[in-house]
Write a structure and sequence with these properties.
AAA+_ATPase; binds thymidine-5'-diphosphate; Rossmann fold; 10 helices; zinc; 24% helix; binds magnesium ion; Ribosomal Protein S5, domain 2
Length: 455
């Protein structure tokens, strides 16, 4: 008899190794590799008779298919992140740290859809039905017709959700609790999670129901993370936030039916998640404009402008190697800005610790924040507060030149709406609106900016 082939699969990123190793080459995680049987018993049994398909031309389809049919939840922030609502027949993965609020968000979405007459089934593998109901009560969702089931076996779940009228939306909370009779590995392993998710996706495609899959981000590699199924689903959303803050951000990282750069912003309260229509007001809420080292960045998230404060602290150190600590921004990007300040602007930071923080637990991913960061750093070093009514944006290149960024007009409009009256932005910015904001200073290079701030 042929020896059963097993594989060694990283539970964090899904990389397949031929032998066990302590460290995964794919993601660098330690102790994340587990031996699994990839076929898991599938494939034995009599051969299947192949079915002949019929390819169709693209033109014959024109007029037939307009837009992907969607079910909007009516929760604007959630609909924005999904691109206008859940697409029928699609599978959506919602990942996030344990305890961040995934179950809360989905219970609220389920209740909202149920109130609109949709049939929603919430399958919980983590909590008993009574516990789920308790949460629903707290969210004022208990009086809705959301159907609850506490199951973890894939075959049982399929039997449960296939019964009765076809559901519009099925929520599986979570994929890590799924286990199938057809896969031999232990529950929570990559093989089990993939087999379970595959079955759920097949159900969605066959019935036209939307499948929402919850996945916990795992750090220790004991159970498979959501990344191992990202390639299988139609859309991937991550629910992020800082435990110390109430804001939660739903970020789209993959979407076959919509944009990927949108975010939905929520605030966690004792009655569940509250939508935040204007995130800038929230992020600027705790602002202390008179302190040196703070600059307001006029950023963009997808189609929406977001203003947020960046805070820098530059302090003299006696240590041989000064510290650089960043929260909410890319640390290699900070290293670059520091290098440009040293090389082209004569700003000496070799004897200084540098701490950088983005207010409110928010994360900036745009290079357009370079100018705001540089301004905050120089302001802290010089001990001079920046003007309170000014916003900053622009990308800095290694040569010290400042480059224009997209959406100038929108950034300025949002800043004006929130009471700012001036802006520091790249020279030759396109689409500079006439008379939108009173004053703006066009900056050509980083040395220009430093001279402006430090006088
Ligand atoms: P939960 O949705 O269970 O997180 P996840 O499913 O991502 O693991 O949310 C857990 C946290 O949210 C928990 O610490 C309590 C808090 N919470 C509130 O603050 N208000 C609420 O109304 C609810 C339901 C939860
Ligand atoms: Mg949960």
């Amino acid at each position: 008899m042929a020896k059963a082939k097993t594989q060694f699969i990283c539970q964090n990123c899904g990389t397949v190794h031929t032998r066990w190793a302590g460290k995964c080459d794919g993601c660098g995680g330690w102790n994340t590799i587990v031996e699994e049987d990839p076929m898991g018993g599938i494939g034995s049994g009599p051969g299947k008779v192949p079915k002949k398909g019929r390819p169709v031309t693209l033109t014959s389809l024109s007029g037939e298919i307009e837009e992907a049919p969607r079910i909007p939840t009516g929760m604007d922030e959630l609909d924005r992140a999904t691109g206008g609502g859940f697409v029928r027949g699609s599978a959506v993965l919602i990942g996030g740290d344990p305890g961040i609020g995934k179950s809360t968000l989905l219970m609220q979405a389920a209740a909202a859809l149920s109130r609109k007459g949709h049939r929603v089934i919430y399958v919980s593998g983590e909590e008993a039905v009574a516990q789920v109901r308790l949460r629903a009560q707290r969210l004022h969702a208990a009086e809705t017709d959301v159907l609850l089931a506490a199951e973890t076996n894939v075959e049982d779940i399929l039997a449960t959700i296939s019964e009765g009228k076809r559901p519009d939306l099925v929520i599986i909370d979570s994929i890590q609790t799924l286990w199938s009779d057809t896969a031999d590995s232990a529950p929570g392993t990559v093989t089990q999670v993939r087999t379970g998710v595959q079955a759920m996706i097949r159900f969605a495609k066959q019935t036209g129901a939307t499948m929402v899959l919850v996945g916990h981000v795992t750090k220790d590699g004991q159970i498979a993370g959501p990344r191992v199924v990202e390639h299988m689903v139609d859309a991937v959303l991550y629910f992020e936030g800082d435990r110390g803050h109430h804001y939660r951000i739903l970020r789209t990282v993959k979407n076959r039916f919509g944009p990927t750069d949108e975010i939905g912003v929520f605030e966690m309260s004792d009655k569940g998640l509250r939508e935040v229509a204007n995130p800038s007001e929230l992020f600027l809420g705790e602002r202390n404009a008179k302190a040196p080292g703070a600059a307001v960045f006029a950023g963009m998230e997808g189609t929406r402008p977001v203003l947020v404060e960046v805070q820098a602290l530059v302090a003299q150190t006696a240590l041989g190697t000064p510290r650089r600590a960043v929260v909410g921004w890319d640390s290699s990007r900070l290293a670059m800005i520091l290098a440009v300040l040293e090389a082209h602007c004569g700003v000496r930071l070799g004897q200084h610790d540098v701490y950088l923080n983005v207010a409110g637990g928010y994360r900036i991913s745009e290079p357009a924040a370079d100018m705001a960061i540089a301004s905050a750093l120089v302001s802290s070093l010089a001990g001079l507060a920046l003007p309170a009514d000014c916003v900053y944006f622009g990308e800095v290149s290694l040569s010290g030149a400042v480059r224009p960024v997209a959406h100038t007009a929108q950034r300025l409009k949002e800043a004006e709406k929130l009471g700012f009256s001036s802006a520091v932005l790249p020279a030759a910015s396109p689409e500079l609106p006439k008379g939108a904001m009173g004053r703006w200073s066009e900056i050509e290079s980083l040395p220009d900016l430093v001279a402006r701030i430090a006088g």
